[in-house]
């Protein structure tokens, strides 16, 4: 498949869709930087095994995955650190013993840059993970890991999100001396995704139409797939103007359940990992309220009574499932935006680089 | 004001409203346990200054505040830890050097209990913060801090949330040798809140009516007030069936903004701290979409063009503002539930103790 590059060939959603389809290739490009990830991992082990991740939007969603990647692959504690505490409250942390990962596609997010500058002065090992290795974020950091996703032109992130997730997994794997296995697993993911994309797109297109009048949704996942839930909800918000909220499968039962009714569908991410029973239990509660259920992921077929199924291939390594399970959400968002007449390449009110305080 | 205790005097929302009004007294009861907080703080300093907080629903919202309390008052890193990583993935962390705070009103939340048991075996100093010091959570922990909020009968938490926030501030303050000042500040908060409650309730009642047909809302805050944003959104979800999503003021600009329109109001928490300029900037972006703005907090009057104001008194110590700024949201939820004919004491599908996986 090839895509026009000239602006006069532009059609709404063309870039968004093209970038979704580029993801297997983008993932393989990231893997060519394996040696750089191994090097940064070796410094991380020396300088600080408490991993502080910072980013906004899709970057912060990827960081949700990072918590699991570092925990499972490296036995290390990774946290989505508060940017405000360091930038606005100037909290006086000793950050020696910490590694900071600044996540920003553009490398231009103001408070992420400011956070990294301060963290570096406080003794942290600072790493920029960015699609622009010449960006200001890259300049303030001690080390740079390129996302190598290629130019991302649609405002809503897709391939840069996928490569952020992959970058965190690869780095964590090298910290845990497991880089080879994870890199091989990712190569396999890129192949399975490439092969599955046409079918995934046809399925997403078929499911999107009934959602044209849906105003609100929940997206639930747990563990590493909570990252997928957050990212899927964000795609629906920004490209389809659907008020989608991400929730962990368990938090759903702690209050939000009460809001459900048959006009309030729930998107469920079900993957073959330790959290599946919690996700299935949550879906059963949802069903009790008569809400429509969309089941996505490699265990979509285990969600009893799901109204719509968007299954994905299983990765060889279960922890890599978020690289696959996010794609139906992206394709669904592209299809739903088209149905609603919105342009996912250029959602109103947004710009590619967000310079908000 | 006194409230009937017998079930045959029951009217919808009576308990929820009574418990909101009990908060100043509940806060003072917590402060009678000051010496226990000082003792636990001294052990925390010895055993582990990396603070891992776990809880669901309102308890997890309070933990959002804890990140700031420990950062600002004690220069310590506190994180809302992943429960799934330890319980479902059995990640092999060394938790010596960590203190774990298990937050649960009932002390019966299954995966919080399981997390604490495992954390204790891995060397963490484990502390239960619960309204029931005889609960299973209290039994598996090494130390117990009572919330002392008194029996909470409404399903939607109010006074236990407030006391969780206060408990985290008091513990962090003792870790930072600042217990006396913070305890005095809280006493002042309880007095200001008690005095302001009748006015706050009248204001909330006046604002609630136009929201009867609102299906979706954002609630934005930043820094410590992101806890308030999360808790306000949860009250609206569980008691009013309004699909309210919490967002940091900055994350709003990273995508979700695109969903706004004049039928999609935004509740803004504005307090006099370092994040105020970011919150004001976010509100200005919201205004560009024509959304109605509710401004709450002690800096509500600084939000340009706000349609509804719900100001609260300023605390003597700015970090304590979340103890005040959450109350208008609680009162608004009580009023809106009444307008919509719902019973906030017993939202459908929920029970007081959530035993979900």
What do these coordinates show?
The structure is a homodimer of 357-residue chains. By secondary structure, chain A is an alpha/beta fold. Chain A folds into two domains: 7-186, Rossmann fold, CATH 3.40.50; 193-340, Glucose-6-phosphate isomerase like protein, domain 1 (Rossmann fold, 3-Layer(aba) Sandwich), CATH 3.40.50.10490. The first copy, chain A, has 14 helices and ten strands. Chain A has helices at residues 14-21, 23-31, 34-47, 58-74, 83-87, 110-121, 136-140, 159-175, 179-208, 225-240, 249-253, 276-288, 322-325, 327-340; strands at residues 50-54, 78-80, 98-104, 125-130, 143-146, 216-221, 243-248, 266-269, 293-297, 308-311. Chain A has a five-stranded parallel beta sheet, with helices on both faces. A five-stranded parallel beta sheet of chain A has the order 7-6-8-9-10, sandwiched between helices. In chain A, β8 (266-269), α12 and β9 form a beta-alpha-beta unit. In chain A, α2 (23-31) packs parallel to α8 (159-175), α4 packs parallel to α8 and α9 runs parallel beside α14. Chain A is globular and about 55 Å long. The mean pLDDT of chain A is 94. Chains A and B meet through α4, α5, α10, β7 and α11 of A and α4, α5, α10, β7 and α11 of B.
What would you say about this model in short?
Chain A is an alpha/beta fold. Chain A has helices spanning 14-21, 23-31, 34-47, 58-74, 83-87, 110-121, 136-140, 159-175, 179-208, 225-240, 249-253, 276-288, 322-325, 327-340; strands at 50-54, 78-80, 98-104, 125-130, 143-146, 216-221, 243-248, 266-269, 293-297, 308-311.
